[in-house]
Predict the structure.
Amino acid sequence: MLTYDLTARGRTPIYEYLYHCLRSDILSGKLASGEKLPGKRALAEHLGVSVITVEAAYSQLEAEGCVEARPRRGFYVCAGAMPAVAASQGCPPAIRDGERKWKLDLRSNSVDASLFPVGVWAKLTRRVLSEDPDALLTSVPHAGLMELREAIAGYLRGYKGMAVSPEQIVVGAGAEFLYLLLAQLFSGAAFALEDPGYPKIRQAYTGSGAVCTPVGLDAQGVRLDELRACGAAVLHISPAHQYPTGLVTPLARRQELLSWARSTGGYIIEDDYDSELGFAPRPLPTLSSIDAAGRVIYVSSFSQTISPGMRAGYLVLPERLLGEWSHRLGFYSCAVPSLEQHVLARFIAGGYYERHLSRLRKACRDRRSAVLSAFARSGFAGRVEISEPEVGLHFLMQIKTKASDAELRLRAEKLGLRLGFMSDCAFDPRRAREHVLVINYAALSGGRLSEAVELLEQVLT
Amino acid sequence: MLTYDLTARGRTPIYEYLYHCLRSDILSGKLASGEKLPGKRALAEHLGVSVITVEAAYSQLEAEGCVEARPRRGFYVCAGAMPAVAASQGCPPAIRDGERKWKLDLRSNSVDASLFPVGVWAKLTRRVLSEDPDALLTSVPHAGLMELREAIAGYLRGYKGMAVSPEQIVVGAGAEFLYLLLAQLFSGAAFALEDPGYPKIRQAYTGSGAVCTPVGLDAQGVRLDELRACGAAVLHISPAHQYPTGLVTPLARRQELLSWARSTGGYIIEDDYDSELGFAPRPLPTLSSIDAAGRVIYVSSFSQTISPGMRAGYLVLPERLLGEWSHRLGFYSCAVPSLEQHVLARFIAGGYYERHLSRLRKACRDRRSAVLSAFARSGFAGRVEISEPEVGLHFLMQIKTKASDAELRLRAEKLGLRLGFMSDCAFDPRRAREHVLVINYAALSGGRLSEAVELLEQVLT
């Protein structure tokens, strides 16, 4: 019987992962043309998943022409699905698959592109190209263009009260890329990660060979007893706005975490992925800014606030790690193009970034109110309970339902709606909490909001 | 006595690595202010390095004010070098160190920026921003913008005779970044690397946790007996132009390598880093294009041909790996900014790239002749022997000298000249060949060439 390691699926839903495994075996010829797939019930039992999961995987393969259903006999691998023809006809190649076009994607946490001052960016780009054409060609230092690092340091000082020097800043091609470098910096160290948490973080670290242990959360954030017990040397957290729970870690817990790091000689990676979009009047100081012992690495990016298409992020290293970083990682070229670094430096230093953020915050606040009130008037209002957020671009919606998350997802996907569930974010499956949707509302304006309400009504009622 | 693992230094020269280790211990306070460093001779003996190496490390620390020499007593850690003040005064922070400004850098393999048609790029950028402002903001699929993948596939078809579909292409933020992803794709597999070889390749793979074994070269490229004996599953090679030896692997050896991959179920990563700059009239077919079994991943980048400041590279996956790639790595966002991908797609599809390449090839050929004849007329002509290259931006220069590579390097660095040695590229130190300079000549035009000759005369005679 076909056997796949379903624990390797990362954040991919089980049915989708199973579909990919089967598809890969069909394309590689391991499942030969004309071969019969196992019965749905039998395979479900064998893999320890529900029949509906296998059904969903088989249907998708059928829809793509990789397998065909023969009435009362089962599913058979199609001839046209063989590797030789895969590129030109038959199944569309796998790399494209992940990029299904959704009617509506509530899992994406992109902000609305229309809010960004494209004109300003274009103007600055033109200006850099005319004033300093070499900006395009000169390679920048490993840690990034000094002007950009200075601009970021200035922004952090003015906006977050963080007294950092430009030399502590490393610019990289988005937060994910910086995670890979951090995994190399701390290679051999055990990582503790929030559970539930943002799945890409775990994927990037485990993909880089790091051993990761889940640490549960209480109302204040990461549980110290579990953290101490797991013996990790590096803790990755988002104290300003935990994903997906939305928890904000209060000052007392922040101090406890710092003293854990100090006493164990450990490090904390503070992932400040969206605190720019906080609505609270006075955000708490970052861990990095109250860390006297030099045990915090601060990570942030421009993906949420400018655009996910602008792959630029940065981290702030404590002084004590500068030498180590340079030894171990200084040989890598800076992965952000020079031109973009020049433009971004001017965008921040010229005050455009702060002005954009303030407009963006207002827009998100308005959008959030509109979404919350539309949901309150919707047909599913009686079946859900919403946790209202103080910060960020998502909120949690608990659903009263008997359907499993897999069933709800399947219902939604048939309508072209992509949903994110809290259970997708579980690291330890025993902790997975069902029936909680993570709604990323940033893109829900105007017509898309009424569409979202309609689609959710169909799925939830 | 101070003990450092000098094998961890990667391609950093020993003295520079030792300097970094000491500096890091001084900044972290492990070596306290006022403490005496070990005697040069004693430390050299303890670490198994030459006295001149320790001397060079101590001098650099002294020049930076991290240590002070007290006559007839030795070197002492300065008070001003303590961590608290490191950011603002005293030693410049370590991340900057790697970026020493050289009078002349013969190790850099950048092409001359002045050859790139900046005006065309600027025009295309303006056009994208005005015709399609969303290009800046919309995030592209994991494997890259489809238009760019199509343009690259078209280029490979027309220029290299490679029949690849755009779906096989993955765009990434430079070759180094793609190495990191390949290490994750093949995690757990043993890698075989050319010895000598490009040090960053080894650094990136070992940094990612891969086990790497050196495989020696004969006149045709990688030795098959060593390859078979080492039991690696993945082989990373540059058959078009091996770095640093300049070897071109002939067709028969290419076939043997492919049959190794086929029979062992292994994979070959074909790193075609600079074959665009070949001068031979008919380049050999790439391994990828004669690989019927789907066991070759082709990697190339635009760093050499456009600019190292333009972080964009790509790989071509065989069909059989598309599914696996998508499962394991499809969650990463594409690390190249959208805007740049749009501009690059137009640059290639509009024929600008090929025109630029043909100009670039001519310029490199001219420059190479000029460099070779200037060297032939130089004061050091009688002491060196040059292997003339058919391809690429560097050549080898064997020196008749009694001085060690470390001594030559030190002499050069005192003059502000950065040299690259073949011994820097050795993986297994027992194979390190001394007295061979790797001369990257691409930047040596006009005044820089005469400066290079002058400086080399001082170092070599």
